[in-house]
Amino acid sequence: MTPLFSHSQRHCRHLLVLPFTLAAFLALAPHLASAADSKCAGSGSQFSCPNCGGSEVSDCMDCDGYLFTDYNDELCYDRKLFNQNPDNGNSDNHYPFLWFDIAGTVVWFITAGIATACGVGGGGIYVPMGILLLRFPPKPASGLSQASIFGASLGGILVNIRKRHPDEHIRDTKGQPSDVQEGKIISYEKDKGPAEIEKDRKYYLSGGDGNRKFYSRPVIDYNMALFLAPMEMAGAVLGVIIQRLFPNWLFLSFAAVVLGFTAYKTFKKFLVAYGKDKEARIKRENLIAAESRHAENKNQAGGDVEMTEVDGNAADTEDDEQSSEKDDLKELEKRRQFLEDDARQYPKEKIAYLILLWAGLTVITFLKGGKGVDSVIGLTCADAGFYILVAAQFLWTMGFAAIFGYKNVKGTQARLAVNYPFNEQDVLWDGKKLQFYSFFTFLAGIVAGLIGIGGGMVLGPLMLVMGINPRVSTATTATMILLTSSSVAVMFVMSGLVPWEYALYFFCVCLSGAYIGKTRIDSYVKKTGMSSILVGILATIIAFATIGCVVILFTNLAKVDWCLDGFKAFCTVKTDEDKCPATRLLLGAEELFPYRT
Hints:
With about 600 residues, this protein is mainly alpha-helical. The chain has 18 helices and 4 strands. A two-stranded antiparallel sheet has the order 1-2. A two-stranded antiparallel ribbon has the order 3-4. A hairpin with a 4-residue loop joins strand 3 and strand 4. The protein is elongated and about 95 Å long. The termini are far apart.
């Protein structure tokens, strides 16, 4: 067993805390909630709903078009972007929200840039700030968050889709085997200064059969995305189903525990990564200084200014030439074909498969409904068709994952057979890797669906634990987030749960913020080589999301006199009696006069 695998096993045991935490909450929650059921049963205010002729509703989410609640005036009102009217009693033109919206613009812009650079959607920030800063109810805040994530992830992919892999000088030679895992090679640039690296690259290009060149890859790992994205989506479907049963206080508590644990583990990973980056930077500076002294000594001695090969470089190039002489020509040609295929910046068939995955799940979701949005064909949870479509969601996503998991394993095996130059941060897919990644990605999807955030906050740290390059992991998770957020955002806006002007405005704010912020942060990381900064920012974002969950939890409990309600019914279908009087009269009229024009 290799050192990397044992390292991953230790982290597996830590990550297993998540499902056990969920099980503990499920076991304890009925006992905590049962004592409070009687106390909470009679509590609750009534709010005036202008959409229903001035009738009263217990929840403004039942007041179509007036979803926002004023607890002081006890009325439901419509929210307008940059509203300046100070009249607090008008449901159609209520409250001056100008400064709240301006402050939200600044927060959303900054958050989009930072979150996208770290490969997360930012929902853990958008939802709490939507409730606390913009004064949105939970469901509209969640819908606005999805529109914001959609904009931010789109801005991020506009940057990522043009970016190349951090290793821009991949060679077609076998290389020196790595001690980390069989099948991987040690970087040719390891422990070398800039001048030595440049000389070694020239030596490589001048050798061989005359057809040598450097290869690279897109920063987005499309093979990984095609396997992990459907597994995350399948987990999110199950997470949303579980969320239907959980009272708000329970899933907010669970969210705080999970995010707090994830922030802690990510921060520990940041400290380790930062130490390695700092050590590598000091070593690089020392190598540059040594090269400068070497050149200065040559000048003073009146010798040739050009540096001679140092022991490490001479050994590398000599081994490189020896391996080239022994290299089978058919094997070399096949290896170059794989390198050329992997070097394509826009692999059309893989992008098409991702679009197909998104389109299929979006159609099924629109037909089924979910996230508080009604089915477009009128299905409810009381219909058999609803559960058929739930099963279809699992079959579609897991079928995709099974197909591309198999393709990834076969592709890895074919490349290993020709000594493909995998670097130490690549994933070599095999049966164990598929099991590990599928389990924890599915778990990340459950947590994301249950909490209502993007899976990047759970999946991103998992990728870092597995040793994947931070720039690759952030770009890949950002691509996956685009797939999940876009369809849900459209559903929220079409259902009227989010004011369209807010959704469109913050979509544009986050798109521009993500594009500008990610470009700046990526440039800094590339210039300094301190990719650990992405891990540190990610840990900070998750910590802020944890604080937001705790604040919302206690704020909501205070509004209901600290009542802990019990589990919700999985299926609740509104009847005509639940509708406002005007709607019931129209329904009655239609029954009496069905043929009116």
